[in-house]
Design brief:
2 domains, mainly alpha, 11 helices, flat
Length: 249
């Protein structure tokens, strides 16, 4: 909302004619419409392409989860599962276009020196989202193994492909969003909502919070697995705080 407020406040001078001010609002709406159209087109194209390979993707996800096979419980349920997978594939593959368009829309609300960071932030957002997706797929077998370990010996997990794929896709998107922590911190710093001094002052709480998040994201009985998640998250925090400090925030 803070970025949107700054974008909308990029209006003509108070003494500009009323027609110019209305034109400025129309330009903002046109920019928003253009952004949404491009995002929907990109998402639509990648979703159609994703549906073509969705069957192979489901097969790979079941194998990656460490399961020999999965079942579907209705005649048309697997088609719906393939459609769900295609939508998520479309979102993930179109993510670079979506992220670029969102940053293109909000960049007019930034100051000139802040706009120079737009391209690095776009690249960082795409890279970190992809890194989060990769981390989720890497941790997937561990998740399934830990969750199944709570079942007694005489209870067997029969994987419903729709529920399994839904769980995996939400997990993948969740990891991608969590790994955007550095971008969120830097943007909040650029907007003046937080500062490097505040981050360093509350470093202990960030340390504890990130540790709890790492344990939640990577369940396991050993301390090493959550540590593998905690270390990059904490490095993200320290790098983000350093960037804000070097930029005078």
């Amino acid at each position: 909302m803070a970025i949107l407020d700054r974008v909308l406040r990029r209006a003509p001078r108070p003494d500009a004619p009323a027609e110019d001010q209305r034109m400025s609002v129309i330009e903002h709406l046109e920019a928003l419409r253009r952004m949404l159209i491009i995002i929907l087109i990109a998402w639509g194209i990648t979703t159609v392409a994703g549906f073509v390979v969705s069957g192979q993707v489901v097969e790979w996800l079941v194998s990656r989860a460490g399961l020999g096979h999965a079942v579907y419980l209705g005649p048309g349920s697997f088609v719906l599962t393939r459609l769900q997978v295609a939508i998520y594939i479309g979102l993930i593959v179109a993510a670079p276009v979506v992220i670029q368009q969102i940053w293109w829309f909000v960049s007019p609300g930034l100051h000139r020196n802040e706009r120079r960071l737009t391209l690095p932030l776009i690249v960082a957002t795409i890279f970190l989202f992809g890194l989060g997706v990769a981390a989720a797929l890497y941790a997937l077998p561990l998740y399934i193994r830990v969750l199944n370990s709570f079942a007694p010996a005489n209870v067997t997990y029969l994987a419903d492909v729709a529920q399994l794929v839904g769980f995996i896709l939400l997990m993948v998107i969740g990891f991608g969003v969590v790994f955007e922590l550095p971008v969120v911190i830097v943007v909040l710093g650029l907007l003046g909502i937080i500062s490097s001094r505040w981050l360093y002052k509350n470093r202990v709480w960030w340390f504890l919070g990130l540790g709890i998040a790492a344990n939640f994201l990577t369940p396991g009985v050993d301390p090493l697995t959550p540590l593998l998640m905690f270390v990059p998250l904490y490095i993200f925090f320290e790098v983000s705080a350093l960037i804000l400090k070097l930029s005078g925030r």
